[in-house]
Fold diguanylate cyclase.
Amino acid sequence: MVTSKTRPVAQPTVRPRPLARQHRYFTWLSLSLMSFLALMVLIVYESRWVYPEIQGYFSQTGSLTGQQLSTRARVYLQNAQSELLSDQAEQDALDAATLDIDLAYGLTDVHIYRREYTCAEPSLKELDRLAALFVTRGIDRVAAAMALFAPIQCLTYIEMNQLDRRGAAINDFSESTRQHSQVLTYSSLLIFVMGLAFWWLHERQLKRTDRATQETFEWIKRAMRDPLTGIGNRSALHHDVLAQQHQSLGLILVDIDFFKQYNDAYGHPQGDTLLRQLATLIGETLNDEAQLYRLGGDEFAALLHCPNTDTLKRYCRQLIEGLREAGFAHPAHPDQKGVTLSVGGSCFVADEATFPNAYEAADKALYRVKAMGRDGWQVTEDA
C-alpha cells in the first residue's frame, strides 16, 4: 500500500544580487525610461499646437469616420441588390437582403447625415418601406433591387462629400504641423538614441539575470524528476494535476510485490535496474499516453486522460497483462511467480480539492489488491 507522505520540493536558494549591481541595473533602466518619457513629453508639447486639427480629423463629425460609415452602408446595399438578383430561393434572397438593408440603415441613421444631407431622410424612409414590403411580399425582387438605387446614390454622394472634407482636413493638418516637425524630428532623434543606448545597457544586464533565472528553472526541473528512472516524482505529479484543471483524469498507483525480497535475492543494483525497466514497461504498456511518476521506493503512479472508469480499467488490465508477458524473474517471490504488481486506480476531475480524494481512493483500491493476495488490479468506482 502506498503510504509515504508527500515530501516538500526543495526550493532553490536565491542569492541576493550585490548592491552595486542592483544599483547599476536600476540606473540603466531608469535612464532609459526617463529618456523615452522625455520623448513623449516633447511629442505631447508639440502636438498641442495642432490638437484642434487632430480633433477635427478623427472626431465622429469629421470626414474620416463619416466617409467610413457611408462606404460601409453603400456596400451593404449593393450586397442586398446582388442577393435580390441572384438565382437563389426567393425567401433566402429576401432574408439575406433584409439583413444587409438593416445593417445599412443602422450605419446611415446618424445625426450628422440627417442634419447635413437632405437625401438622408428620404433614403431612410425608402429603406423602411422596402423592409416592410419584404415582410408582406408586396414587391418583387427586381423592383426592390431598382428601389435601392436611390439610397445607394445618396450614400455615394455623402461618401464623396466626406472624402472632400477629408482632403481639406489633411491639408489643414499638414500645414499646422509643418513648422513644428523639424524641431520635433531632431529632438526626438537625439532623445531616442539616448534611450536606445540606455536600454541596450539595461538589456545586457537583463540577459545576465535571465541566464541566472534559466539556471534556476533547470534546477527546479531536475528537482521534479526521479534521478534513477528519469520520470517525474511526487511533486511533479501534484504539479501536473493542477496544470490540467477541470479535465477528467485517471490516476493509477502501482506497487511492486515483494520488492524487498527481490533486492535481497539480486542485490540493490539489480533492483535499480528493475525499477528502470518497469518505468519503461509501464509507459509502453499504457501506449505512452500516461505521465509517469516514481513516488519513492517501489511505488509508481501514472496520470492519464480518462473519460470513465471503463477506460481506466482497460489501462489497469493492460498493465498487469503487459508485465506478465514481459516475464521478469523473481526467485524470491513467495508464490513462485515472476515480478508482479498491485495496481489501484480512480477517476477524477482535476482540481486542488479533488486530487487528495482521488489519491486516497486509488490507494485504497491498491490496498484491497494487496489484501487479496497481490498480482492484480482494482479501480474505485466512486472516487
Observations:
- Residues 19-221 form one domain.
